[in-house]
Amino acid sequence: MRNALCFYMNVIRLKNGAELRYISSRSNAEVVSASKLTMKKYREEQGLFLCEGEKLFEEAVLYGDPYAVFVSEDSVDRLSDKTAGYLSDPRFSDRVFLLSRPAFEKITTERSPQGVIASVRIPERRGVRDAVSGLRSGESAIILDGVRDPGNVGGILRTAAAFGFGSAVLIDCADPFGDRAVRASMGAVFRIRITETESAVEAAEQLASSGRRLVAAALTDDSETLGSFEPSDDDVVVIGNEGHGISKKMLSVCSVTLKIPMAEGCESLNAGSAAAVILWEYRKNRR
Description:
Elements: E1 4-8, E2 11-14, E3 19-23, H1 29-35, H2 40-46, E4 48-52, H3 54-63, E5 66-72, H4 81-86, E6 96-99, H5 101-107, E7 116-121, H6 128-133, E8 141-145, H7 150-162, E9 167-171, H8 179-185, H9 188-191, E10 193-197, H10 200-208, E11 214-217, E12 224-225, E13 236-240, H11 248-252, E14 256-259, H12 271-285
């Protein structure tokens, strides 16, 4: 192994000083526990989720709260110097594991895995009231109302973080800490404050009483047109379900509905594309 300095008593030491405990069995307790994190119920019980690939692993170390890391023995020699260096992060303690191919395949959800997976602590859960009161002046926020596709959830969070949105409230959405959503977010789950609730009523009431303007991406008789609409840094942008749009309760407390101008014959964009167009307009107008 190119990166290995020695292999002793089931521990491999890399040249940068990182020590990895070797696991060969798919039935090892650490492997089985990590593999169960693909299930939402187990993620919630353990307070952990998985980040797979070098990019997400590095994001987890830099911006998240990493717990353990699993490296495939087939890939340890191909890790970048940066990734290999992060394996010695003291937060991992003795929870850095080198896995045989069968053991690694027990955990990975990728068809072509990059050979490194981290388990990361889920950020502390906040109620909607705390999320709303915690919004800073001049900080835009986004609401996802019933967005059920995990790829859309992760992609929209990625867009929101990229365009400077600091907080997201998810109402009855796909789990943002599931593997597909995390992968689509490309680290945005670490960069944006996420609050989850199943109650549109609670979220609507809290946001309406906060004094912020709620702007819904929805087509109504009095919708304003993106481009001639004046965004505000304190706005909260609402993106609805892929098929049914924004719930009636949430729509009833929105101050503005907003439509995206499109060519004749085109009715709508999907949730991810609509969010990207609208959030970019906010970024463009931010002072």
